[in-house]
């Protein structure tokens, strides 16, 4: 047991990464009630929305209103995804403790996702990072497709390191490494972490697993064996895979909590409240979420 | 990578443990076609049915006919579940290479499941084991609820060892250790394997995980770190949890293969054929099976 962290810090990304991959829209008022439930669960950080242009993510076009109206719990860090200076301005107006910038380790994925080459993306994110830091906000750098890319296949750790190095140089506080299409197995996690941990302290690294092939919990175990203690997850496994509609997306907060509680690792989160919040949004979306421990709880009644 | 086995032996239990937990019946002819597909996939062992009285498992009341009519691949070991001498006789008539006997590490679960105390169960299984060995068959001893019991809660490794010792003394060739309700997390797997591996060689131990809370793949990873290289799994995650209808059951062969292939561990199984067989039975049952990698493949089209 000594080799696992004593405390794991979970960032709830359901309101952002989850909802942006759901076809069905959730009413703004419901989102606000739901985020308030999450705020009350003990989770230390919530990514509450995205300030990407609504044309790209219509599900989150109410980011500003949501940011204005949610009840802020002083023990929760509220963050949002911001693509550029304009997005950051809106986010600052709506209220954020942290800004998340994003790009891909894969040239092709970056191009398809944000319509720019990796080289063209750096200065844009660099500006956002500078402005956000000047405004006193924490900045997380999301790096997508750190294991595999839907267009390029296997991504080499060197390509990931190049992007991470630049983001760190530009001033991000931490890095969230995304298994965007949920293909990784533990040996890939090991290979990447071996390299990254030579360069960055482990508390700068957040692992962001998708559970598209059911590997996420095993990948979290492996990450914890490397001392990683920060993970992104989505309540109920909300969200999906944009490359395979119908497949599952982010690892479920519920399943991560089941694992961590079972291992005796503290999170500060009340499992029951997470379950209630998962049932709430499952109801609003009118579909069963993919979390197996949630499905079990529902089946149990 | 050195610490994981080079080869993993999978026993496909979908036709038995999977189907016995599905409400919908599958026609005998379909079962036979499906088992023939499985026989052709490279899987080294198939538990093709159960010779428990049809009153208890009506879904498998055609065990005898199935055993008679499936096409035997000489590279596959065909086994069946047998509860007693009568069941063994029928199984031998239908044709088996191996017999699986079963009992629980939990007194209450054993009583509820087979209507006898643990002490009363030993002599019955002892007879079956003796007869099966005399007939030249391999015998596997299933031990259920080795981690947690739906009635008694946490089960101590000592209680598991007591049952394992007796079954080994009675002559089983190997032991399959069941996380019957799919509650275990890796620390529980470690605690049990630490004790069992002091007593039995690792190739005598088979781990039988259910994925009811989504922990099975992580538990398999942990087992492999202890040198375990034999696992039971069910195609597509077929089957369910008798204690929570609607929840998932056996770990999916598809997900296990995704993991093992990703880690570079050999199984001799063709993933594509397993996928085809999973889609076949999914169709016959008219419901989506819980395997995430299967759902991904289906979504991909």
From TrEMBL, chains A, B:
CDD domains reported for this sequence: DRE_TIM_HMGL
Gene Ontology biological process terms in this record: ketone body biosynthetic process; L-leucine catabolic process
InterPro entries, alphabetized: Aldolase_TIM (IPR013785), HMGL (IPR043594), PYR_CT (IPR000891)
Pyruvate carboxyltransferase domain sequence ranges: 8-275
Source organism superkingdom: Bacteria
Homology family: Belongs to the HMG-CoA lyase family.
Record-given protein name: Hydroxymethylglutaryl-CoA lyase
Organism: Ornithinibacillus halophilus
């Amino acid at each position: 047991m000594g080799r696992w962290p004593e405390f794991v810090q979970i960032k709830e990304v359901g309101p952002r990464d989850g909802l942006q991959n759901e076809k069905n829209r959730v009413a703004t008022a419901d989102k606000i009630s739901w985020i308030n439930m999450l705020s009350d669960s003990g989770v230390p950080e919530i990514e509450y929305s995205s300030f990407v242009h609504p044309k790209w993510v219509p599900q989150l076009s109410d980011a500003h209103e949501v940011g204005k109206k949610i009840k802020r719990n002083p023990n929760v860090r509220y963050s949002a995804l911001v693509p550029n200076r304009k997005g950051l301005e809106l986010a600052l107006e709506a209220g954020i403790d942290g800004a998340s910038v994003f790009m891909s380790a894969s040239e092709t994925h970056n191009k398809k996702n944000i319509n720019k080459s990796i080289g063209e993306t750096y200065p844009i994110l660099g500006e956002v990072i500078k402005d956000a830091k000047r405004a006193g906000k924490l900045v997380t750098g999301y790096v997508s497709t750190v294991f595999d890319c839907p267009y390029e296949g296997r991504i080499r750790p060197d390509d990931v390191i190049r992007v991470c190095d630049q983001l760190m140089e530009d001033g991000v506080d931490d890095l969230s490494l995304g298994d965007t299409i949920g293909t990784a197995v533990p040996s890939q996690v090991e290979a990447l972490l071996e390299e990254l941990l030579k360069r960055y302290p482990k508390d700068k690294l957040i692992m962001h697993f998708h559970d598209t092939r059911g590997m996420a919990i095993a990948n979290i175990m492996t990450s914890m064996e490397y001392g990683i203690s920060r993970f992104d997850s989505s309540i109920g496994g909300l969200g999906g895979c944009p490359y395979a509609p119908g497949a599952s997306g982010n690892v479920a907060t519920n399943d991560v909590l089941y694992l961590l509680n079972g291992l005796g690792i503290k999170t500060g989160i009340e499992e029951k409240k997470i379950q209630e919040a998962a049932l709430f949004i499952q109801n609003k979306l009118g579909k069963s979420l993919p979390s197996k421990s949630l499905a079990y709880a529902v089946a149990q009644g």
